[in-house]
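Researcher: Structure prediction, please.
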Amino acid sequence: MKLYTRTGDQGMTGVIGGRVKKDSVRVEAYGTVDELNAFVGQALVLLKTEEAKFHDMVQDLTEIQHELFDSGADLALVKAPEGYDLSYKINGDHVTKLEKLIDKYDGECPPIKRFILPGGSGPSAALHICRVVARRAERRVVTLAEMEPINEEIRRYLNRLSDLFFAMARASNVRTGVTDTEYKGGEEVFK
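Model: Predicted structure follows.
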């Protein structure tokens, strides 16, 4: 099989159930989820260099990569072809799992009083990038949902996922002995 198909040369791409313009809101939404998945892969590379400290994060992020791929498939569904299993892959159980992971990683961190600047250790910086790309993916999915039907659980999933990346970024700083840098320009906002 060749990597190039030449079927997209006219600015169209295949989705599940048809073809759409490459700059459609749907393609932008699942494309941003795909971009997020690539950044998660980059974070995994950094975490694997110190696997003993981050074994659980590596396992959790690897599973999340599969779920992001499933999210992309759910978002690429325009019309179910005959014989296609119409059930969505991402559901409320995935959101609940993320909430438990948020609580776990947040429990490793000191209480937060001010906004935290992205950075610290290498793994933390990479996870903060994942956080902001997850937020952008969520915004793209919100826009798509205003125009076309989608799997509504993906919005919730991406929202919790960005929170998880924040908790993991802070926990990775704790595990590497790096203190979070608080934003100096504001007052204590978390009490």
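Model: The beta strands are 12-15, 18-21, 116-117, 181-182.
Researcher: Thanks, that helps.
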